[in-house]
Amino acid sequence: MTAKTKAAVAVKKPLTVAQFKKKIEHHLNFTSPGNEVEDKSKAVMRAVCATVNEVIFEKLNETNLYHKEHKSRSINYLSLEFLMGRMLSNNLHNLGVFETAQKAVESLGYEIEDILEEGSDLALGNGGLGRLAACFLDSLATLDFNAYGYGIHYENGLFKQQFHQCRQIETPDEWREYGNPWEICRPELVQRVKLFGTVETITNTDGSEKKVWRAGQIIKGVPWDVPVVGYNSKSVNVLRLWESRASSQFDWDQFNAGAYQDASSAQNHAQDISRVLYPNDTTPAGKELRFIQQYFFCACSIKDIIARYQSQFGADWSQFGDQVVMQLNDTHPTIAILELMRCLIDEYDFSWTDAFAMCRKVFAYTNHTLLPEALEKWAVSMFENVLPRHLEILYSINDYFLNQEVEALWPGNNEVKARLSLIEEGHTKMVRMAHLCVVASYKVNGVAQVHSDLVKSDLFPEFDQLYPGKLTNVTNGITPRRWLKACNPGLSKLIDTKIKGDWAKHLDLLTGLEKFADDADFQKQYMDVKHENKVKLAKVIKQDTGIDVDPSAIFDVQIKRLHEYKRQHLNFLHILALYRRLLAFPDYDMTPRVFIFGAKAAPGYYLAKEIIFAINKVAEKINNDARIKGKIKVVFMPNYRVTLAEKIIPAADVSEQISTAGFEASGTGNMKMALNGAATLGTLDGANIEIAEEVGEENVFIFGKNVDEIKEFAEKGYNPWDYYNSDEEIKACLDWLKTDYFTPGEPGALSAISNSLLEGGDPYRVLADFADYSRANRDLDAAYKDKPRWAKMMIINTANMGKFTSDRSMKDYVDNIWKLTPIK
Ligand code: 26Q
Fold first, then answer.
1. Does the pLDDT of residue 452 top 90, yes or no?
2. Which residue, of 98, 708, 725, 809, has the greatest Cβ tally within 10 A?
3. Residue nearest atom 13 of ligand 1, based on CA coordinates
């Protein structure tokens, strides 16, 4: 070990409160102006960030140095989305200086909570897939692996949501309007990316042919590095986000030709590429700009990865496959495969065979959905226009795949070839991105056991035959640093009194809580913490919605993107049923319950928006109906995002995970809420199944049809009218929506839901699960009435969530897919 790396791994003395305070004051005076205003919370926030950045950048340099010297193999996580949320609290916790910072800030006359609230939420993602990427980066840095995240530096992240007359309104998310203290521009690492144009074939002097892509446009990619701080570890890794700009090289030609207007519009056009995150999280819109986004970021990232490699190994490519692994977060970065092929063949003179072998050494792909409409396909015509050379390469892979590999296993079978082909024939020829991923990657994984089983049996059955062992499972996880330690300080401190050792790094240690599950004192302490969290959330609810809720009611939470398969409308129908029971039988025995929703709908998803509207309308009516004596409250919190999740999750009693079995790949909100003690009310879908296995069936409320039973509907038919006609409650609730009871003067304003459930055929089988959902809700109510039982259940949930730390997910990827070694 050199002196430099020895220094790198040496443990530094942590800052004292006085030193921390001095540094904040220094930054207030010299780097973070704003000292002169009366409320300088914003300036203090910036000064605190600048203070921790001193530590962060030092560790970042040391981490880089170590990996360079040790030639560590790196994982490069390619993702269109990173839902990082706010960074300050997490960074303070991960560096182990939260309390020091808290005291330093207090000594300056501020509350740390207020300072933390000043930071903006990095919402560069839609939902689960983007947040998963952020949790994985946290774990990789915590476990000291050499990891890079690669993504897009969107100017606008996921839209902000407001409600206007109960309907969703979208406004731009200007997260960087006032700068972002957590990013550093790296102009020395700029890349240039080609688009459009034509492919020429050139004959070399030896008679061999070479392809040259003459681009129609060149875009500049500017990298912004966001440091990723490991928890109680040696590492600070990097999330590298690419911003698109017009390439000045290109513009000046036009400018000099007097086409100033054109040059500046090219400039605008180039900047459009990284302007905004696409807000769809299921149906890909097939828009050219989205395709260009995907290519732009993949091309910049591949070039950057090659440049990092070459800075160490020069022109010797022999180590590349041992140095680099790239994980494709769903099919969104698939084009990276074709870009690596193109670089190797056209720029580094690889043979086709060697280039393809290299791809199969470095790429692995994660599937996050089985929904057929969510599988990405791009029109061949558009491909040809934007990336003509890549389409040629795609065809060459398809030719090899169909005529060598498929032919060998199914000789002469054109049906199988048509099914597996990278190209879907038809009126508009389409490229099947998932097929390219499976063919060109060395591993493909689903994100929960049941999902991975379905990937094998239903989505890619022939691929599983063709490539035995390629398809595998890695169950998702969440970082306990953000989702317990930082967001639930009350529970964290209580856990500290019982668990010796660093449970946030070794989450299995929480099983040590089991022996206190029946201890009345501990139960009381645990429930007191939950109650305090509910009191805090009640204040946020009042502030954000004006609704008063009682913290002693059950807090029943459904927070996730709005989608029919997630079945917010099943929850909604059940609320209607409860309301109706209370009106019919004023003494109907139920524990008061607050139903809390948080969800954004894709702006073009009509029914999702109607469901938001209906929940808001029904909430208005129920919340103001004195007859039910406050037994039900319905709260739809606007603008659900990571920051809001951090406030809701610690206060949840019930976690609604009610997707149609077979549709939710994993879910991760289910893990976050169970870790914070909430009881899962869920179907046998995604990771719910594994959660139930870990915490025991008696500590979850499972209902509804399982995967096989849901499949039976497809075979034997599904008739929603059977449920409508045979269940008086279902009938009454659906009929209710057609009246003007909840929308006075506007009969039928909520009937989109009943129509979709009855006339629309409802692929999500809501009515089939209604009765059992209602039964599970009654069981839950009874369980809640038994206070010691409920407390025990919550403790057992927290105690048994060790499996779901993203550290475990990362170890699974490292052991089975990536094969990395950490910093010693
Ligand atoms: C694709 C093409 C064009 C535009 C948008 C998209 C797009 C964007 C985002 C498609 C899908 C997504 C996001 C999917 C997602 O979040 N999936 C969730 O992934 C989680 C992490 O594995 C799982 O827990 C969830 O079950 C799964 O729904």
1. yes
2. 809
3. 281
Q: How far is the CA of 784 from the centre of ligand 1 (A)?
A: 34
Taking phi first (over 0 means left), then psi (-120 to 50 degrees means alpha), and beta for anything else, what does residue 765 get?
left
What amino acid is encoded at 672 in this protein? K
Strand 160-164 versus strand 167-171 pairing type? antiparallel
Strands, E assignment, 452-606: 471-473, 554-559, 593-598
pLDDT above 70 for 377? yes
CA dist 376 and 578 (Å) reads 40
* Mean pLDDT value of segment 465-479: 98
- Which residue among 482, 530, 561, 569 is the active-site one? 561
Structure tokens at 678: 């909430």
What is the rounded distance in angstroms from the CA atom of residue 569 to the CA atom of residue 565? 10
d(CA 164, CA 18) in angstroms, rounded, equals 48
| 430 close to 423: Cβ distance less than 8 angstroms | yes
- 329, 330, 432, 473: which to mutate for ligand 1, most atoms within 8 A of CB? 330
8 A C-beta contact, residue 152 and residue 80: yes
Active site (annotated) includes residue 739: no
Rg (Cα) of the chain, in Å, rounded?
27
Question: pLDDT-derived band of residue 261, with 50, 70 and 90 as boundaries?
Answer: low
Label residues 558-580 b or e (16+ Cβ within 10 Å = b).
bbbbbbbbbbbbbbbbbbbbbbe
The Cα–Cα gap between 552 and 777 comes to 18
Closest among 14, 278, 236, 286 to 152, alpha carbons compared: 278
792 is known as an active-site residue = no
pLDDT at 8: 46
117-121 own/partner pairs: CB under 8 Å, 24+ apart? 118/41, 118/42, 118/44, 118/45, 119/45, 119/49, 119/86, 119/87, 119/88, 119/181, 120/86, 120/175, 120/176, 120/178, 120/180, 121/85, 121/86, 121/157, 121/175, 121/641, 121/642, 121/643
| DSSP-assigned beta bridge partners for residue 478 | 805
> Would you say 236 and 225 are in contact if contact means Cβ atoms under 8 Å apart?
no
Known catalytic residue at 672: yes
Q: Are 205 and 236 in contact (CB under 8 A)?
A: no
| Distance (Å, whole) CA 120 – CA 183 | 13
Mutate to test the pocket of ligand 1, among 129, 335, 478 (most ligand atoms within 8 A of CB): 129
Q: Based on the residue annotation, tell me whether 775 is a catalytic residue of this protein.
A: no
Active site residue 542: no
Tell how far CA 248 is from the center of its chain.
35
pTM confidence score: 0.97
Nearest residue to 483 via CA among 782, 801, 702, 703: 801
* Structure token digits, residue 818: 């990536």
> Which helix (H) or strand (E) element contains residue 643?
helix 642-648
d(CA 798, CA 680): 12
Residue 253 CB contacts under 8 Å (≥ 6 apart), including other chains: none
- Give dist(CA 360, CA 372) in Å, integer: 26
Task: Report the alpha-carbon distance of residue 438 to residue 401 in Å, rounded.
Answer: 11
pLDDT band at 13 (very low <50, low <70, confident <90, very high): confident
Q: pLDDT by residue (tens digit) across 324-347?
A: 999 999 999 999 999 999 999 999
As to burial, measured by CB atoms within 10 angstroms (0-12 exposed, 13-18 middle, 19+ buried), residue 478 is buried
